[in-house]
Amino acid sequence: MADLQLIMSGLANGCIYGLIALGFVLIYKATEAVNFAQGDMMMLGAFIALGFTNSDRMDLPFWLAVPMSILLMGCFGYLLDRIIIRRMFGQSQVSVVILTIALGFVLRFAAGTIWGHEPQSLESPFAGRDVSFGGVVLGLDEVVVIFTTVLLTIGFYFFFNNTKLGVAMQASSQNQLAAYYMGIPVKRIQSLIWAVSGMMAAIAGILFASKGSIDPGVGLVGIKAFAAAVIGGMGSLPGALLGGIIIGLVEPFAARYVAAGYSQVAPYLLLFLVLVFRPHGILAQIHRKKV
Amino acid sequence: MSTQATNIVEKSTGTQAGSDSVLKIRNLESYYGPIMALRGVSLDVREGQIVTVLGANGAGKTTLMKTISGVMDPEKGQIFYAGKDIAGAEPNEVVNGGIVHVPEGREVFPLLSVEENLEMGAYTRKDKDGVKEDREIVFSYFPILKERRKQAAGTLSGGQQQMLAIGRGLMARPKVMLLDEPSLGLSPLLVKEIFAIIKRLNKEQGVTMLLVEQNAKVALDVADYGYVMELGRIVIDGEAAKLRASKDIQEFYLGASTDGQRDQKRWKQKKTWR
């Protein structure tokens, strides 16, 4: 019984890690750079939703605030690439990485200035409620997180495999030059991928915030999500989700069965083991790199 | 024989005369950073012809193709396509206009299926029915692609990938196809097969071809007209049949053995080319 609840809360956390990791992988596949601000973008998405819907802020209905913040984060991602990241074209990937780390700091500071540094809770309709499935009592927030992730996964699968734009996104990440030759507007597609990962960050942020309080520093779960992306195989979308879920599941069990000081290390120990024994991650895509 | 060879060299004005050229390139100069890769290239491609550009590694053939398709921007010069100067246009505009580039080394999308690769070839097109028709046309030229249409392109053999690259190019319904080294890394039998299809596409679908090749023999066999590039310049041009007969071409590009008599002459000729 207790184990089932651990599994559920682990799964729910894991789904959130997975969604952030998905954002990492999307951008990595499209531009071969890692966006270390992904976690902070998640934080920003959560705060935007909070700003829209909390009664002491704008007090908009929750169901309006959610699509608005997702859309806003989508625009944020698009413009971020359009205005800043694209200027780094031709620079080494390290400079893009450093840029995104700096961006993370900026976002944390901006969020603190706008919404304050204290932990706050998003007023979501599923916070603190329980549902029971045949006698098993589960937190509604956890069920919503898992359900949303499943829906998103199906949606993404459909988008990437069955729409022209989705296939073009895959194509330009697999072979950028050939995509240019085919007349695919690669730059615009990259901006759109940033937009998608911004929207992803907003969704992850809202789900994260509906499970507990947030403060401008929560973006640091991005590090765990990055570990998830690496465990799953950087460059594999299902791998990112799988990695997230694995880390999410390892955490509560480590906290329960391992001495307190050591349990925190468990996700990174796992990362370490995966890197040693399967350096390309669990679901590595065999992808020939052209020079 | 030797008089004809010198004739060709003298005649080398760098252009193929004629007003019905679909692609007309004048004094094109392109750079890779500080390195000048095209040193004023002029050439003409007439509608319905197969025109080949021969030359060794580093002659600038691929750069020429990339500059035409808009992946590289020229520093100077014009590219007239259907009367309009398209030098420096974006790749998607060039594809939309009807020029498609089939790149060297196949360059398929490795994890997409054959069908999805073909779909990407038609990315700039809006007419769904036409795209479907063209896919059937591509399948009729390359039946193996139909058989493997659900397979990831990266798992195809080299020859099949080359077929896919050509088929993907056809999906844009081009007027002009830029073919960069279709023979690269393929067995002689496959080369023969692919060139037969190139010839058929030219005759049956009316696709004008600009064909870059190192394999001068097969290229001159299918081509109507040929240019020879060296170090970023056109050094010889002429009807394909004449080029085939030319001693210079035979020696340097067709690998015919030299008889002692010509040794001295070759040295001289090489000098005049540069």
List keywords for this structure.
heterodimer; A: 291 residues; mainly alpha; two-stranded antiparallel ribbon; two-stranded antiparallel sheet; B: 274 residues; alpha/beta; Rossmann fold; 2 domains; 6-stranded mixed sheet; 4-stranded antiparallel sheet; 12 helices; globular; disordered N terminus
Explain the overall architecture.
- The complex is a heterodimer of chains A (291) and B (274).
- Chain A has 291 residues and is mainly alpha-helical.
- Chain A has one domain.
- Helix content of chain A is 70%, strand content 4%.
- Chain A has helices at residues 2-31, 38-53, 62-84, 93-115, 140-162, 164-174, 176-181, 186-209, 221-232, 237-257, 260-263, 266-277; strands spanning 120-121, 130-133, 136-139, 213-214.
- A two-stranded antiparallel sheet of chain A has the order 1-4. Chain A has a two-stranded antiparallel sheet with strand order 2-3.
- In chain A, a hairpin with a 2-residue loop joins strand 2 (130-133) and strand 3 (136-139).
- The longest helix of chain A is centred in the N-terminal third of the chain and has 30 residues, at 2-31.
- Chain A is globular, with a radius of gyration of 19 Å.
- Chain A starts with a helix and ends in a 14-residue tail after the last helix.
- In chain A, 49% of the residues are buried.
- With 274 residues, chain B is an alpha/beta fold.
- Chain B folds into 2 domains: 2-98 and 176-273, Rossmann fold (3-Layer(aba) Sandwich), CATH 3.40.50; 104-173, no CATH class.
- Chain B is 41% helix and 24% strand.
- Chain B is built from 12 helices and 10 strands.
- Chain B has a 6-stranded mixed sheet with strand order 6-7-8-3-9-10, sandwiched between helices. A 4-stranded antiparallel sheet of chain B has the order 2-1-4-5, covered by helices on one side.
- In chain B, a hairpin with a 2-residue loop joins strand 4 (76-81) and strand 5 (84-85).
- The A-B interface holds A 164, 167-168, 170-171, 174-175, 177-185, 285, 287-288 and B 69, 71, 90-96, 100-103, 107-112, 116-117, 119-121, 123-124, 154, 168, 172.
